[in-house]
Amino acid sequence: MNNKASGKSPALVAFCVLAGLLLIAPTLVVVPLSFNEKQSYTLPTGWSLRWYENFFSDSAWFDSAMLSLRVAPVVALIATVLGTAASLALVRGSGRWRQPVQALLVSPMVVPGVIVAIGIYYVFLRWHLTETFIGFVIAHTIMAVPFVIVTVSASLQGVDRQIERAAAVLGASPLKTFFTITLPIVMPGILTGALFAFLTSFDESIISLFLSGPSNRTLPVQLYQSVTAEIDPTGAAAATILITLTSLLLLLVGLVTVRRSTSK
Length: 264
Fold this sequence. Notes:
CATH topology: MetI-like fold
CATH superfamily: MetI-like
């Protein structure tokens, strides 16, 4: 039985690699396009860094990138705090309220993004929050909190409550028990949730498109405007930067998680 399982393992690995390549390949097409010396979305015949230079020198591109980089960390921090608190209430709480509240909190992951965007735009327009930093933060946080809840709740469900009870018996307060015992155990889930919250904010395009204005737009919105309004490979350069940043963050969290698991 073990031989059969081991015999299927290379085929399974090959299938997973092939599936991953098929999913990633269309995305990676933009990488060579970003080095095209011509102003065209065709395979390059010559190589140049002019579009990366244009990305950092053009105020429209640079300002939109800076706005996204200012919004995303704030969203990650707020969403992580709120999502962790909500996860504690959902996992450790009791009563019939848990299921409907959990469904309500994670609904932004299920409801089509354009519907959420229309609702947020209608409310924010009345509150004068469109085209504002606070408006972007609140809207992106609404979309990011569900990812934190999912990851942190999964980590909390794996915590042995006997350890917490032992700490309480030894005189530790609930707050001290949480910070010295529970928090270190669920930290990988919190870090993963924070990462997804950051990426959700940094990559959010539908809601940002509704909230943006001519002089205040995030990088995904600027990228969308560039692709739809003109032929400018600067968009390919911006997309390559997004892919690189996302990959590095995922790799960093993966390395931290593996290191924590191997050190136990």
